[in-house]
Design a protein that fits this description.
Elements (H helix, E strand, L loop, with lengths): L1 H17 L10 E10 L5 E3 L4 H15 L4 E3 L8 E5 L8 E6 L2 E6 L2 H13 L10 E9 L5 E7 L7 H13 L4 E5 L1 E2 L2 E2 L8 H4 L3 E2 L3 E2 L6 E2 L4 E2 L4 H13 L3 E8 L4 H6 L27 H17 L4 E5 L6 H4 L2 H9 L5 H18 L3 E5 L12 E4 L4 H8 L4 E3 L2 H4 L21 H5 L10 H4 L2 E6 L9 H8 L2 H10 L7 H18 L6 H4 L1
Parallel strand pairs: 2-3, 2-4, 4-6, 8-9, 8-21, 9-16, 16-17, 17-18, 18-19, 19-20, 20-21
Antiparallel strand pairs: 1-7, 5-6, 5-7, 10-11, 12-15, 13-14
Helix pairs in contact: 2-3, 4-6
The chain binds ligand TNX.
Ligand TNX binds next to loops.
Length: about 525
Amino acid sequence: MRHLFLFLFLLLFSFSSKAQFSVIPKPLSVQPGEGTFTLSSETPVIAGKFQNEAEYLQKHLQDEFQIAIHISGKKSRHPSILLQENPNLQPNEYYLSVKQDGIAVYGKTSKEIFFALQTLLQMLPAGASRQAEIPVAQIHDYPKFGYRGMHLDVSRHFFTADEVKRYLDYLAYFKFDKFHWHLTDDQGWRIEIKKYPKLTTAGAWRNGSQTGPYADMKFDTIRYGGFYTQEEILDVVRYAQKLHIDVIPEIEMPGHEMAAIAAYPEISCTKGTFEVRKEWGVEENILCPTEYTFKFLENVLDEVIRLFPYEYIHIGGDEAPKTSWKNSSFCQDLIQKLNLKDEHGLQSYFIKRMEKYLNSKGKKIIGWNEILEGGLAPNATVMSWTGEEGGIEAAKSGHKAIMTPVATNYFDHYQGDPKTEPLAFGGYTTLQKVYQYQPVPKELNASEAQYIWGTQGNVWTEYIPDFPQVEYMIFPRMMALSEVAWGTSDTRQYQYFLQRVQTHFKRFDRLGIRYSKAAFTQ
Ligand code: TNX
């Protein structure tokens, strides 16, 4: 047994060091061979119908290695990169064959070809070497989960459309295929809605922000904000489409809506004038379930629908304290009139009604696990965050679930010793903890487990003021999650994962991308 381990270790080690095989997420099957393929400006890409993917490869090789490959319609005498459709393959499955005299990539559609090219790009030298050599290997690969997501909160802090595109580049590189864009929250509304211009003229700006640790209750008085025009949103969505990433916008309801309430106070149950929230944490003032509010949300969603082609829309549903509904005679009358049990019943009515509206427009909803309270909307997908229970309950009742539990999937939490790490939300989620996460809870049997659609990393930005800090918080943890989501994480091989991470750090250094070394210093 010991000898077997030693043999496997040596095999692994010799392969990873000699051939620099550091692909993340680790492909399902890799057969290494002898020698390398050398990429040069002579190398044509035979693109066939995969022009977009060929251009992507061309751009990356130019930007990273200053190699100007050319795209060609037909076979060539030169050693080439062939992108080849194979209708017999399964969705998401690809083959990548690297031989000394040529590279061939096979997939059913452009999405699979794109995955294969990400693998290929990661097989190039990570460090400063300009010798673009790719180790000979035969790779066969496909993911375990159909939802491999990353989230970004652009409300607490705002990130420009260009920064969001860079974020999408990172997602694509590690084969994530869903981007959950948290566009609205108490501290800022970030998407232009033409029918309600005050959402961005007023709702996108706050007169100060909380600074330092939450308990200190310190604030600055700097006006802060920003938003995306509809043009910018369309541009980001088009960009994501080229990267084969589906964009899921989140419009929060009925809680986390203070920015909208500040702009249009008539959608709240509480009378008065309000400010876009400066403090982090949970806001008591939530949307009032009046016909006026429902019409408001429908009008907002009509514009959202036109901007986002993917069939899912996230409607939030989390952390909606019920005090304002308890104190509202309108809500109490409505509970009676609709024969609901309590305020949770009213939230359930709220979400079900919005689901019905969105379903009628051809869209499906995702909501945070609080949408289970008081009864789940008939077609909803649950995003399980407070733990795994929400996902388990959803799966057991035949609803799709996305697992994003706070203990492992929150990349706003500390990844190393809080004494030496920059200020973060709290928690302690090490790289290893992320790597060991298994999205299918053991409580589920095989048929229930099929409802676990996948997993996602959440990046809440209360304590993430700028984009370099986003990079620092996601790297390397999102690399661990990519292997979890692809289904190839193997806790016995954590050390091998760490080796591959360190190879990627060389690339990050070369490209000026920030990351945390916490996993290697403690
Ligand atoms: C909880 S996760 C929230 C967010 C915060 C986050 C901080 C969720 C659905 N709601 O509003 O930003 O914690 O980790």
